[in-house]
Amino acid sequence: MTGTTHVVLVEWDGDGDSDLSSPADALVREHLPRIDGVESVRSGKSVSTEGLEGGFDWMLVVRFRDRTALEAYLPHEEHQPVASFIQGGSRRVVVFDIDD
């Protein structure tokens, strides 16, 4: 069975003066590695010089052991603080999952 990668792109709500990326990164580091089946977690602001982010400010990439681990992650109690923070502070969110 292959692993699964979960990608989340977030455009933070607001006027651009408040950056929610750092607190989001801290929540991700605190909570997501505790979830069984999570193999790696990466998050952060774009450092691209191309400027092709399409308005998105922050990205989260979570690599799971398999699709079953991804499915268990969504309702997991350690995922909830991260999901709530993103939902409460975002204008737009895109989620893309792939088997790799």
TrEMBL record:
Cross-referenced InterPro entries: Dabb, Dimeric_a/b-barrel
Domain Stress-response A/B barrel residues, every copy: 4-98
Annotated protein name in UniProt: Uncharacterized protein (DUF1330 family)
Naturally occurring in which organism (per UniProt): Curtobacterium pusillum
